Amino acid sequence: MKPPRLQKGDKIAIVSPASAVAAYVPRRLARGIATLEKMGFEVVLMPNATAVHSHTAGTIGERLQDLHMAFADPSIKAIISTIGGFNSHQLLDELDYELIRNNPKIFVGYSDITALFTGIYQQTGLTTFVGPALLTQFGQFDGLDPYTEESFKRTFMQTEPIGRIEASEEWTDEVLRWDVADDRRREHQVNAGYTIVKTGVAEGPILTGNTGTLLLLAGTPYLPSFDGVVLMLEDDESETPETIDRYFTQLRHMGAYDKIAALVVGRFPRKVDFDPDFPLKDIILRATRGYDFPIILDADFGHTDPVTTLANGVQIRVEATDSVTLDVLEAAVE
Predict the structure, then answer these.
(1) What is the rounded distance in angstroms from the CA atom of residue 80 to the CA atom of residue 252?
(2) Residue 180 binned pLDDT confidence (cut-offs 50, 70, 90)
(3) Where in the sequence numbering do the catalytic residues fall?
(4) Which tens digits make up the pLDDT trace of 145-157?
(5) Which has fewest Cβ within 10 Å: 216, 232, 321, 332?
(6) Which domains does the chain possess?
(7) CA-to-CA distance for 155 and 262, rounded, in angstroms?
(8) Are 209 and 114 in contact (CB under 8 A)?
(9) Which positions fall inside the LD-carboxypeptidase C-terminal domain (predicted)?
(10) What percent of the chain is modeled with pLDDT above 70?
(11) Closest Cα to residue 212, out of 309, 285, 115?
(12) CA dihedral over 10, 168, 227, 253, signed as positive or negative
C-alpha cells in the first residue's frame, strides 16, 4: 500500500517519537521548518514535538497522541520526524494500526525511528521511508543538500519509477554543535563512490533502516520477513567495530543471509573508527561467509550527509559487477 504523493501547498506534520532534542535547539528547529516552507509546504508542529519527559520527547501517551492526530487529520499529507534517538519502539504495541491503514500517508524518519516505520510497514503494509529528518537535514545552515532534496522530491512528489540512485559527489560527517556552532556549511570531502564487497545481480523489495534498531524487533511481531529482500542497513557514530560485527553476526544467526537477495550498507561516520587492518569489508565478509549474494558498502544513507530517501517494500535492482548500479524500479507514492 503506497501513500498519496506530496504536492506543493500540502501540510506536513512534525513529530518527535523518540528523543527530546527538538526542545533544546530552537534555532535549528526553526531553520528546519523554514526550509520546508521555502519548498512550498505548510508545516504543522504537533503539540508534543518539543515536549520533554526524562529522556524522551513526552510520555508514551503524548508521543502516540501526536502520531494518531497526524494520521487522522485528512489535511496532513506527510509526517516527518525531528530526529531519532532512543525508545520509539515503546510505541509499537499501542499504535492504532487500523487508523494508519485507513489513512495512508508518507511517514519518514531515520535512525531510531526505524522501529516505528518498520513496525508500521509490517503491521499495515504501508510503504514507509528512511529519509531526511527535520533537525538533522532540513535544519542545516544552508538547508537541504541538493542531493538530499532531489531524492526527497523524486521519491515523494512524482509517480514515475524513482530510477537510479547515483552516488553523491561529496559527503560530510562533520559535527557542529547545534544552536552554538552550526552557523556555516560543514566541510565536505569527495565521495569515492560505492564499494563492492561481493559481486552479483539481484532484485527484490527494499527493507531498510538502522541496524541496531531493526534488530530490537527480532522475535517480535514487528519485524518483516527477510525473504527475497534487498537489505539496506546503516548505523551511527556511537557504534564501534565490535558492535557492528555483533550486529552482522546476529543477522547470520537469525537466518537472514539464507533469505535476502542482496545487502547494501550505508556509509558509516569516521568516528566508528574501523581497524584499517580489518575494516568493515572484512567484518562483513566474515559474517556472510558461505553466501554469494551481492554486497555493497558506502551508499548515501544513514548518519552522514547527503542522504537518499529509501522506501520499504519498493522493488530495487542491484548490480555489482565492474561497477555498481542501484535502480529503483517503481514509484513509492501514488
Answers:
(1) 32
(2) very high
(3) 111, 234, 303
(4) 999 999 999 999 9
(5) 321
(6) 11-163 (3.40.50.10740), 167-328 (3.50.30.60)
(7) 22
(8) yes
(9) 203-318
(10) 100
(11) 115
(12) negative
